[in-house]
Amino acid sequence: WDSTVSEVLGDQIEGLSPELGAVTLDQLLSHSSGIPSDTPEMLDIYFNVRNYDYTIEQQRLLAIQDYAATVPVVPEGSPFQYSNFAYMIAAAMIDEASGTTTENLYQTLIFEPLQMESAGFGSQATIGLYDAPVPHLLEEKDGETVITPRPWGEAADVPSILWTVGGVHMSLRDYAKWMSYNASAGNRGPAIVEVDTLATIHSEKVRTPTRPNPRPGTPKEGGYAYGWGNVEFDWAPAPMLQHNGSNGYNLAKVLIDTENDLAVGVFTNVSGMDAETALGEIQGALFRQFLTTP
To answer: 37: how many CB neighbours lie within 10 A of its CB?
Structure first.
C-alpha cells in the first residue's frame, strides 16, 4: 500500500514531478492523492485517437506520461477527491508489479474463483444482440428529457483505458456473488484475499466532505476506504460499506452490512439524478425490510 508511483513506474515515465512520484497506492485507492476528478486535460487523454494504436496497458503509461509534470494539490480540509485518473494510475502500477494486465487479474483472481461467468469488460450486450439490458444516455434537449439507447460498442461504455475503473459488466446474479463475498467479510466463498487484507480494503482511510442536504440514499458525511464508502444512516443500526458506480449510462448502488452479513444492490440502465434518488429510496426500504426479516 505504501508503494509510490515513482518506485513502480519511475523507470518508464520521463519527467515525473517529485510530488506525483511520491503519491502512494494507498492515496490513489482512497482518492486522497491530490489528483482531481476528470479535467478537460484528462478527458483529452482518455479519448485521444492514438489509443487505437496501443494496447490498454500501453495506453495507461502514455496517459501517465502526458500527466507526468503535474503537481497534485490536496484540498484543504478533507483530502478526498474522486479520481478516475488515480485509479487508472493504480492499474498501471499493478500491470508493472504483476507482469500481466490488471484486466487479466480481474478475470483470474476474482471472476473465475467466484464463478462470475458473465463478467467481462465493455458494454454488457453482445454486439448485434439485445441479450442484456442495454445502457441509455439521458440528455436535456430544448427543454425536454431525451433518453437514447446505447446498445453496443464505444458509445455504450467508458473508453477501454478506464475499463478497470468503471467498465466491468456482469449479470445481477454474478454481482450478487461479489456482494455476498464482501458481506461475509471474506469468510464465505473462495479466499480471494486473506480476511485481514479484505478488512484493510474495507477500513476507512479518509473522511469525505460534508454534503449539505444530501439526496435520499446519500449520507450527509462519511469516510472512504479503498473503493468503498464507510457510511452511516439514521435508519441503520451500524455503519455500512457503500459503493455507487456509474459509467454515465448505467447506475449501480450497493450497501453492505458486514456485522449482519447483509448486502442490498439496486441497479438501472438509465443513469442520472432522478435514478440516483429513486434507487436510494428503494435500497433503504429493502435494507430495512431484510434486516428485520427472520
So the answer is: 12
